[in-house]
User: What shape does this take?
Amino acid sequence: MTDINLIPFTFEGKDVRVVTQNNEPWWVLSDVCSVLEIRNAPDAAKRLDTDEKSTIVITDSGNLNAERTIINESGLWSLVLTSRKAEAKRFKKWLTSEVIPSIRKHGGYMATHQEDTPETLMARALQLADKTIKDRDAQLKDVLPKASAFDELANTDGLFTLRDSAKLCGWPEKLFIQKLVQSPIKWLYVHSSSGRKLAYAKPIKDGYMDVKQVTVFHKTTGRETYGQPMIT
Assistant: This one.
């Protein structure tokens, strides 16, 4: 695949290129690794599942027919959630507040530039909307409710339940939790007696997670309060 549909974004002065395949976004792995300060992109690719990565032929830095690894949304979150760099949290917020909402609302990405005028942005948005209607008219009934639900989630105070975070990443909830439990970063652990998923102290201290006190009523033990792990 060539870079004909390659879309450039800029995160804190670094290029983050996105390409769409079958109306799904894929990120250039080397760009993501640059943002997250991951020095060895090939090693990062090895940690991803086969269906989370692919390749694309692009031209950059004067190289012709240079093959680059690209990763889908699942692979992207695998790298972001296992990074302890300060940039990871800001990168996650940028993705969830700007990039991901763009594709949920418009069916595609709309890159913006500092010099863009409101008129330019509006024209580009109208072009994107027109293309979206033509390409995805048959899917509107399914897309619009999801966009509304995502907007509601994205406009919260920044705390996401594990279930909502899994939906945001496009993963089944069980798989998402499994990745957090098995991650070498040690995000979650399973309590030996209750079986509840609990957050480690380190990600809470670093600001990546928080704990919300939840009270439930159990038919045998009565009122019970426990700490529900949240992702910030």
